[in-house]
Design brief:
Elements lengths: L3 E5 L3 E7 L2 E9 L3 H14 L5 E8 L5 E5 L9 H10 L5 E8 L6 H19 L2 E5 L1 E9 L3 H10 L3 E6 L4 E9 L3 H10 L3 E2 L1
Antiparallel strand pairs: 1-7, 2-3, 3-6, 4-5, 4-6, 8-10, 8-11, 9-10
Length: about 200
């Protein structure tokens, strides 16, 4: 299983117009449902005059956590087409919100599906897609006498130090490591006399 995934580097926007209606698409990199709620609420407040704020998101490995929301549009006409664009682009850890300003002309089911899909596609096209790695956190405790050995391992394995405490006889470190290398790093930490925290 791969420990890399595609996501977006920063927020991106897209616009689609159909028969007077405007569909404003906003894509955000996200890590949690809490972030999703914050972004959706911020869009609602920014565009309080809009009729609908439909959205979809995928979070986690293989987009394991996902949702599509039609926000009052006919069932399946907004959230699913937006989610479909995230799926076809192979993106995860991404939220897409499409805000609709009604232009006075009904678009019908197929028209709505196409409009939400095209707005989301425009935001994806404007996004900078990047590859990231799935990382895990490892914490270890070790005697101060092993500090140089542990720090050499951190450098050799190119670990990202999240926190460290070297203030006493007993030291502690928390690092982030690429998932595919986590077992090897655990073993090397064990060989260096480190115990799990």
């Amino acid at each position: 299983m791969s420990d890399t995934y595609s996501t977006i580097a920063e927020p991106a926007e897209g616009l689609y117009r159909e028969k007077g209606s405007r569909f404003l698409a906003y894509a955000f990199p996200v890590q949690s449902e809490q972030e999703v709620k914050r972004h959706v609420e911020a869009i609602r407040q920014e565009h309080y005059g809009a009729r609908h704020h439909c959205y979809a998101y995928r979070i986690g490995k293989d987009g394991a956590r996902f949702r599509a929301n039609d926000d009052g549009e006919p069932s399946g006409t907004a959230g699913k087409p937006i989610l479909g664009q995230l799926l076809s682009a192979g993106l995860t850890n991404v939220l897409m919100v499409v805000t609709r300003y009604f232009g006075g002309t009904l678009l019908g089911t197929s028209g709505l599906i196409a409009a939400y899909r095209n707005a989301a596609a425009a935001a994806v096209a404007n996004a900078r897609v990047v590859q990231r790695t799935w990382d895990v956190e490892l914490s270890a405790a070790f005697p101060y006498a092993r500090l140089n050995e542990v720090m050499r391992l951190v450098k050799e394995e190119q670990l990202r130090v999240l926190s460290q405490d070297f203030g006493g006889e007993q030291c502690a470190i928390c690092v982030s490591v690429r998932e595919s290398r986590a077992q090897r790093v655990r073993e090397r930490l064990g060989e260096s006399g480190c115990g799990d925290l």
